[in-house]
Design goal:
By secondary structure, this protein is an all-alpha fold. Helix content is about 75%, strand content about 0%. It contains twelve helices and two strands, in the order ααααααββαααααα. It has helices at about 10-40, 50-70, 75-85, 85-120, 125-135, 135-155, 175-210, 215-250, 255-280, 285-295, 300-305, 310-320, and strands at about 160-165, 170. The chain has a two-stranded antiparallel ribbon with strand order 1-2. A hairpin with a 7-residue loop joins strand 1 (about 160-165) and strand 2. The longest helix has about 35 residues, at about 85-120. It is globular. The protein starts with 11 loop residues before the first helix and ends in a 9-residue tail after the last helix. This is G-protein coupled receptors family 1 profile domain-containing protein. InterPro entries: 7TM_GPCR_serpentine_rcpt_Srv, GPCR_Rhodpsn_7TM, Neuropeptide-GPCR.
Length: about 325
């Protein structure tokens, strides 16, 4: 056992987090609002991919809002006093458990998005792909949120947490709980990275094999896959974070545990805030609609709807290409 002197959590990660939030949150809300509005007028943005992407945006924003409400709001004296006085009513537990719950939501989300990209591009006409693409919105949304919630039940059931004092408001947890949760987070994030890496490795080989027969519509689908792949890179950074957390918790080195906990705001912010930039940089169709919204112009509905339709000649061409796909 390493009984090192506890390290004070660094203050600079929270500063970076607040600065990043001030810049990125308005952009994220703009992208989210545009996507939500487009789903009301365009079949293209009502597809399985965009339904999953919208849920992932909600999960990112939920993680940020929960952090602001449960953690950052403690800087306000009246709220800090309220949280401390009523901490037994799952407030202290929520301050700790929400970290893992929001993490697992986004882990399952990136797996769903990656698998959907793989299936649609490599097996466009398979029964499984057809079933995925024709799944109702209600079932898609239910699966997206139900799977991580079931995984999180292991974490959410824990209630034995308390704040150390009303000034610092550090959440104190049992060592066994910290060890279990950090190990579980490492496993879940590790599996997420592994499953998504396998999907994109197979997808890369497929694209390389059919590089001379990629149609314009298939190229659009590949661009959406690249968007998700860049987002996946953030999960590798989180994997490194939880690797350290798990090591320190298993060796009961409590000092670095609290130090690493101080790094969480920046790590969590990076995981959430990379998504809108991936969308704006790599999703040209949606970016055009966002720009039109900012400039107070109407959405190009005709262009959007046309992009969701597949001509007969294009369909006939794709039937001869095993690797081509119909735009869903």
């Amino acid at each position: 056992m390493n009984n090192s002197v506890p390290l004070l959590p660094p203050s600079w990660p929270i500063t970076v987090y607040y600065i990043t939030s001030a810049i990125t949150l308005p952009i994220y809300f703009l992208v989210f609002t545009c996507l939500f509005r487009l789903r009301c007028i365009s079949k293209t943005y009502n597809t399985t991919f965009y339904t999953l992407l919208l849920q992932h945006c909600i999960a990112d924003l939920l993680a940020m809002m929960m952090y602001f409400v449960i953690i950052a709001a403690r800087a306000i004296p009246i709220i800090r006093e309220f949280y401390f006085n009523y901490q037994d009513y799952y407030i202290a537990a929520a301050a700790y458990n929400h970290i893992y719950y929001t993490l697992y939501i986004r882990c399952s989300g990136i797996v769903f998005l990656s698998f959907q990209r793989y299936q649609v591009i490599t097996h466009p006409h398979s029964p499984l792909t057809n079933k995925i693409q024709t799944l109702s919105k209600f079932k898609l949304i239910s699966i997206y949120w139900l799977v991580p919630t079931i995984i999180s039940l292991v974490v959410l059931k824990d209630i034995n947490f308390h704040y150390d004092n009303i000034v610092v408001m550090t959440v104190v947890a049992e060592k066994s709980v910290i060890q279990r949760n950090t190990l579980m987070a490492l496993i879940v994030v590790g599996l997420t990275c592994a499953l998504c890496s396998i999907s994109y490795g197979a997808l890369f080989l497929f694209i390389r094999k059919h590089s001379n027969r990629i149609s314009k519509s298939l190229s659009r689908e590949i661009h959406l896959a690249v968007q998700v792949f860049i987002l996946l890179l953030a999960f590798f950074a989180i994997l490194v974070y939880y690797s350290f957390q798990n090591y320190f918790s298993q060796t009961q080195n409590t000092g670095p545990i609290y130090y690493m906990r101080g790094m969480y705001p920046m790590a969590n912010g990076f995981l959430s805030y990379i998504n809108p930039f991936c969308i704006l940089i790599l999703n040209r169709d949606l970016t055009k609609q966002v720009i039109r919204s900012v400039s107070c112009q109407r959405f190009a509905v005709s262009e959007v709807q046309l992009s969701g339709n597949v001509s007969v000649s294009t369909r006939q061409q794709r039937r001869h290409l095993a690797g081509n796909q119909v735009t869903f």
